[in-house]
Amino acid sequence: CVYTVNVQAQHPNLVITSEDVRAMREAVTQSGGFAEAFQELVSQVEGLMSQPIQVPTPQDGGGGYSHERHKKNYQLMYNAAVLYQLTENTAYAKFVADMLLQYAAMYPDLPLHPKRKMNFQNPGKLYWQSLNEAMWLVYTIQAYDMIAASLEPADKASIIQKLLRPMALFLSEGQPSTFDKVHNHGTWATAAVGMTGYVLGEAEWVEKALYGLDKSGKSGFLKQLDELFSPQGYYNEGPYYQRFALLPFITFAQAINNNQPHRDIFKHRDEVLLKAIDTTIQLSYNGLFFPINDAIKSKGIETIELVHGVTLAYSLTGDTGYLDIAQKQGQIVLTGAGLKVAQALEANSATHYQFKSVAFGDGADGKQGALVVMRNADANHPGANNGSAVLFKPAAQGLGHGHFDKLTWQFYHKGAEIVSDYGAARFLNVEAKYGGRYLPENTSYAKQTVAHNTLVVDETSHFNGELAKANRHHPTLELFATNHSGSVVSAQIDSAYAGVNLERTMALLEITGQANPLVLDIFNVSSDSPRQLDLPVHYLGQLISSNFKRHANTTQLSPLGNANGYQHLWLKAQGKPYKGLAKVTLLNDNGSFYTLSTLTKGDEQFLFTQIGANDPDFNLRNEQAVIRRVEGAKQHTFVSVFEPHGDYNPSKEYTLNASSQLSAIEYETRGDLLLVQLVLNGTSYLIAIDKLKRAEGVETAFKFKNQSYSLSGPLAVYLMTNDLE
Amino acid sequence: CVYTVNVQAQHPNLVITSEDVRAMREAVTQSGGFAEAFQELVSQVEGLMSQPIQVPTPQDGGGGYSHERHKKNYQLMYNAAVLYQLTENTAYAKFVADMLLQYAAMYPDLPLHPKRKMNFQNPGKLYWQSLNEAMWLVYTIQAYDMIAASLEPADKASIIQKLLRPMALFLSEGQPSTFDKVHNHGTWATAAVGMTGYVLGEAEWVEKALYGLDKSGKSGFLKQLDELFSPQGYYNEGPYYQRFALLPFITFAQAINNNQPHRDIFKHRDEVLLKAIDTTIQLSYNGLFFPINDAIKSKGIETIELVHGVTLAYSLTGDTGYLDIAQKQGQIVLTGAGLKVAQALEANSATHYQFKSVAFGDGADGKQGALVVMRNADANHPGANNGSAVLFKPAAQGLGHGHFDKLTWQFYHKGAEIVSDYGAARFLNVEAKYGGRYLPENTSYAKQTVAHNTLVVDETSHFNGELAKANRHHPTLELFATNHSGSVVSAQIDSAYAGVNLERTMALLEITGQANPLVLDIFNVSSDSPRQLDLPVHYLGQLISSNFKRHANTTQLSPLGNANGYQHLWLKAQGKPYKGLAKVTLLNDNGSFYTLSTLTKGDEQFLFTQIGANDPDFNLRNEQAVIRRVEGAKQHTFVSVFEPHGDYNPSKEYTLNASSQLSAIEYETRGDLLLVQLVLNGTSYLIAIDKLKRAEGVETAFKFKNQSYSLSGPLAVYLMTNDLE
Ligand SMILES: [Zn+2]
Ligand SMILES: [Zn+2]
User: Under a CB-based contact definition with an 8 Å cutoff, are residues A442 and A451 in contact?
Assistant: First the structure.
């Protein structure tokens, strides 16, 4: 062991340090956001402290009384301890001490929790699973650290010997499989034990927390930092789970930094923790996380975990763009870092946070596919609500919360989700909806491929819906580039279906003179045998029109299929457009129109569906999709453009550009070169995409319709001046 | 004729006076909202003036080129003339003069418009109908009035003789049936002719505008003021049409007041015009108008007509509550009154506008039923988004835009519409949707009774859907009262169905200790023969649960019926709860739960429907309803409570009170006394409603469950202390 733990440091010294406390005591006497947050906490805590302390015998599972009570207790101890530091009012310290002593009286004799899952290696004593126990200790050790100086020696000894030490040992030596797991649950355990090590001066515990029980570095917190995020800071269950996973990392890392600054923990792996915080922000639109995998749609940057993350990111970097996010979060945390944020906000130091186009590599090496965000240049204009954004998902499965949605995409515009992902089928904590847990329809619909905007072969989901198989494979990111013409991405996967290769190229194109960027989508499928190919676009909005005849089922509805999610889709109408450009126009509540223009040879059927069949409990939202279907095909390329246009303003009584401006698409490939001609409002544009990933600046010459072009880099948009020759 | 017109007045002197102009010229040199609005208008008008003047030969109908061009021209002339007054830059005056001269060159030889409706009495010359021509003159005479002083005498004579005089004569003597019509179209005509009379010194024209062509007072502007609004200022097509109808009234009234202040036009009929403006505001929730009749749902207080209305109301009354509305409108008009609003807003003089519980009498005498708004006391707390509101509609039909919805209701809470009205089936100005006109489904669904939250007998609409019959009848308002316990209303109608009496009593109850007011609904139907009775509740939200078994149609959907709107409802599920309290719980996107609790004897079937059947063009929104149905009944009383509760916050991961607090309803009548016992969270409350309309303070003694009560006034809520005896 190279380092020693400095037990002579002034306490508290975990997330909040004694130096922080001096500044914080000063700040709560002034006016401002920090003092307001303090006052709010005072009245909340005073209210709770007026009730008798309750430390019930552990008996209930998640959601039950003893479970919830022990959760509330650690939050209350933490908050009261913060108030003790800020006010020096011993009533707060005494309250924490009294509760700790009650826990100390109970803990040594506790058996494993009666509601533990049998045959699992993760039982707790206070809770049915040790994850909650580790969380309890992460908060409680901080509370203890803040009030320890006020304790009578006998009480202190009792709390240490009967509660903190046994629990830390139970969570480490007592549960090696959890403690040494390179998994988010392991992070809570290492954070709890390591922080307790710092406070109790147990250098050995800190070493084990950082490097694993055997101190080899094959597990432990640093290994978790190395493996659970990709080099760009992406966590492979998606942003909804990423913001949750962040909390033990940023908590323990701050404790490490305050106790052992020479470890330079925030510099570890090229500042991966900071990248993880920033990535979580980047993976949001108009304040909400992109709802991939089992995400609850209303979660976003306001979640408390990300409030802590942004607070830390600002205090470490001084990057004033984080203040913009902090302002939108509207919540100040009562820590030293929180004080810096509050003061900077009051000094009006916030600058506009920059959302970017990025391919976030997936997996520990960043090479297991990627999650790709493409945004237009306008995305960062104040008031743009993040402009236009495409989320494209050639990512790995994302473990048990992953959906079978390889190469799916979503589109966001004018503050709203337009091309949508269902997210999770769940009403969080609503007892009447399956106890608030994931609904059966999460598996039967939301996870299935047809619930996504990607290709379904023969009405079966990717990897046949088998998780183990899905976890073993991932798409390959072939190309990602962004320049002044927009952004382009290409990816492929040949393992989602045996004998079938899926390859998708998408671009968010910024065309001079066009009010909105266009999304170009080229989905190429090749198979070793004839298949049925379905490519859905799920949308939020009202169907306005199609330029081809639809046959509607007006007096009777039936489900589109009988398994793999199809059983939940009512077939409302269908149509088979002739050769040419098939158009479907929608209107979203945001007042914009959207037209999906598909270049078809007359072989694509368009199915118009609504979610809701086989849903006896009304668990699903009744959203719409249009599905393009080709039957008996060994090869097919779906070529389409998704075009935002116009403005529907019934309040001001005007409607502008309700019709698509796109009148023609031509498409051809020349080896690695994709060429697409678009006619917009009578003007022709040529889009060239070079999939060979030539670097910017390397010129490729080619001819198109008798004109010579020189392509420099992977993407260009040309104004065609002479295409009538 | 008692009065003479003062032609010596300084010009301009219609809506904007020369005195206004002095203050406005000063204001545009300062900073502030008025100067900003001015600068915006400058850049808009400069842009338009840089293009050549176009005065095309009239040939197109509404929406066509010549129609739209002539509309834009009058707006541009008006705006340029305002800028001439504000800047004294003669380029603006010259532009207006040039355009007026082009009109003067064309107008005398114009035949009736080629696109006029044959066999109608309302053709125009510039436009297919004279309504638009009257609008043109209302704006243009103001523009002329503002630039007249700058004209060469010859030009002036030409404009007067060839354009203004002939048009005013065409719109009065030339079209007696429109000019003398007591109808909104007539108001535009009288305003145009009267204002032209003031400017040209034609006292006779003013007299005719005010009292009709024969000057008898049986028609004309004053008669329109007397008949088109009820004494409380309600316009019987509803608020969506009221804000539109307001504009010619407030425009002409200001011109009258400036030219003939002795007429005291704003005092006319107990200040009915001010009442009409205020009523339009009162008939909104969270900024949007209650969408009764053929209303477009996104219209609200921000509409330009109401901006003018609120501006006038503030300048006349100095009531700073109007500034609150003006602030929300966010638009400053460039008039003297607009300047007063801008200055008062900058002085932070705005106070909270008070929304009230009111029964707005319908019809010219205010006795043809009423439109009733009940709001809770919280409705006016800042940030409450208007709190809770019930709209109840025992109103007259409202002419051709009326829906067959006698005694329907709606409920609003936490900023959102919960118990909903479909509004109009129309995509305003969206060509692809039936040319932007009312869709066929407006008649086949939106107007029908089943599309509303009121009683349908034998699957037919009120008055059998016949407008002429509907216009002849109206409900009777039996009771309306509001006190500290809430508000109560009762109304009945026996003409909607032959042989059937419908009587509904509703209350918005404020119960001490309850977070939200409850809606009590007692709908009593009695018929001379057995009938099928359907009572729908259309809601916006997701069904969470019912406390009775539902049989869902999971693999096939069929329409509920085949006519009168029923053909558009898919039957998704049905259930027949046992005797007792039948509950259906919903969750709205606003995060609140709502439970409809119905006291049933086991004879009510609950049908769960979704709009969308027989809608081949996807014209309808796919909203949900629950319909209570009783078959073969001669008498039935539907007794229910609609209860907002709880809070669903997946972002902060908590869900509170997802279950209804109401565990029992008992109901009895004793003559005119309705007694309802509610058990909420274990506590019993007695609601007493005395339909005899005893005045507040008159005591009625009664006993209930061995306790004595004394009712003072029409509504009381008692805490029951001893109901176990
Ligand atoms: Zn998904
Ligand atoms: Zn209606």
Answer: no
Cβ-nearest to A621 among B436, B542, B557: B542
- Helix H or strand E segment including A149: none
What is the Cα–Cα distance from B262 to B265, expressed in whole angstroms? 8
Query: What does each C-alpha distance from A692 to A618, A670, A689, A702 come to in angstroms?
Result: 49, 12, 9, 15
Cβ contacts (< 8 Å) between B589 and chain A: which residues? none
CB A350 within 8 Å of CB A320: yes
The ipTM estimated for the assembled molecules is 0.90
Count of H helices and E strands in chain B?
A: 18, 27
DSSP state of A302: T
**CA B170 – CA B142 distance, rounded (Å):** 18
Q: Give the residue from B253, B247, B73 showing the smallest Cα distance to B163.
A: B73
d(CA A579, CA A556): 30
Closest CA to B521 of B674, B296, B661, B379: B674
Asked whether the beta carbons of A188 and A165 are under 8 A apart, the reply is no
pLDDT tens digits, residue range B266-318? 999 999 999 999 999 999 999 999 999 999 998 899 999 999 999 999 999 99
CB contacts, 8 Å: A300 with chain B = 651
Q: Look at residues B593, B613, B33, B9 and name the one whose alpha carbon lies nearest to residue B259.
A: B9
Query: Is the pLDDT confidence value at A191 over 60?
Result: yes
**Quick one: tokens of A584?**
């479907």
pLDDT tens-digit series, residues B668-690 = 999 999 999 999 999 999 999 99
How far does chain A reach from its first CA to its final CA, in angstroms? 77
Considering only CA atoms, which of A83, A15, A25 is closest in space to residue A49? Answer: A83
Q: What is the mean pLDDT of residues B120-135?
A: 93
CA distances from A474 to A397, A496, B21 (A): 7, 8, 72
- Which residues partner with B288 through β-bridges? B285, B300
Q: In angstroms, how far is CA B667 from the centroid of its own chain?
A: 35
At B544 the three-state DSSP class reads strand
Whole-angstrom distance, CA of residue A124 vs CA of residue B515? 39
CA distance A577 to A156: 79
C-alpha torsion A151→A154→A158→A164, nearest 10: 40
Q: Which residues contact B468 (CB under 8 A, 6 or more apart)?
A: none
Quick one: which ligand is closest to B446's CA? 2
Q: Reduced to 3 DSSP states, what percent helix, strand and coil does chain B have, rounded to the nearest 5? A: 35, 30, 35
Straight-line distance from the first to the last Cα atom of chain B, in angstroms, rounded to the nearest whole number = 77
Residues A27, A31, A33, A39, CA torsion sign:
positive
Judged by DSSP in three states, A47 sits in helix
Q: Is B119 on the interface with A (CB under 8 A)?
A: no
Whole-angstrom distance, CA of residue A513 vs CA of residue B350: 43
Choosing from B11, B401, B403, B538, the catalytic residue is: B401
Which residue in A has a C-alpha nearest to residue B302's C-alpha?
A651
Phi, psi (rounded to 5 degrees) for A239: -65, -35
pTM for this prediction:
0.92
A12: preceding bond cis by omega (within 30 degrees):
yes
For chain A, give the number of residues: 725
Number of helical (H) and strand (E) elements in chain A, helices listed first:
18, 27
- B387 Cβ partners below 8 Å, 6+ apart? B375, B376, B377, B378, B379, B380, B381, B413
Our CA dihedral for B604, B607, B611, B615, rounded to 10 degrees, sits at: -100
CA angle in degrees (0–180, nearest 5) for A471-A474-A479: 160
Q: Alpha-carbon distance B261 to B671, whole Å?
A: 54
- Cα–Cα distance, A595 to B351 (Å, whole number): 45
Look at B428 and A653 and tell me if their CB atoms are within 8 Å. yes
Residues in chain B: 725
Residue A131 tokens, joined: 């994850």
